[in-house]
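User: Hi! I have a protein structure encoded as tokens and I'd like to know what sequence might fold into it. I'm fairly new to this, so please keep things simple.
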């Protein structure tokens, strides 16, 4: 079979497109991923109640646990609580979402 230059060009274009990274499939940087987690924490009415509506003094990442939950420590003037997030992977291209699985009592 004799290939024409048009066939070769279209094959090269298809190969280039197949190997090119797609923006929709790219993962968020660590900064934006942790910012998304912190936003979920700050939006939580349950956390506000657990802290007795006191101002937040600090938010600190603790660990990703063996059960897959992401643990953050949130401190206020009177107490600290642990916030456990569950990652919800996208069904297709897109960012991972997070939801609060549970919040510990004030200690």
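Assistant: Happy to help. Inverse folding works backwards from shape to sequence: for each of the 107 positions I chose a residue that suits the local structure. Here it is:
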């Amino acid at each position: 079979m004799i290939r024409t230059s048009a066939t070769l060009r279209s094959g090269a274009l298809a190969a280039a497109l197949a190997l090119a990274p797609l923006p929709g499939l790219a993962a968020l940087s660590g900064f934006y991923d942790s910012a998304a987690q912190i936003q979920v924490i700050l939006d939580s009415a349950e956390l506000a109640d657990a802290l007795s509506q006191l101002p937040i003094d600090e938010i600190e990442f603790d660990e990703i646990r063996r059960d897959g939950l992401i643990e953050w420590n949130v401190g206020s003037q009177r107490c600290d609580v642990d916030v456990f997030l569950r990652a919800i992977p996208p069904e297709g291209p897109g960012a991972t979402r997070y939801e609060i699985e549970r919040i510990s009592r004030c200690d």
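A useful reference point when you look it over: The beta strands are 56-64, 70-76, 80-88, 97-103. Feel free to ask if any position seems puzzling.
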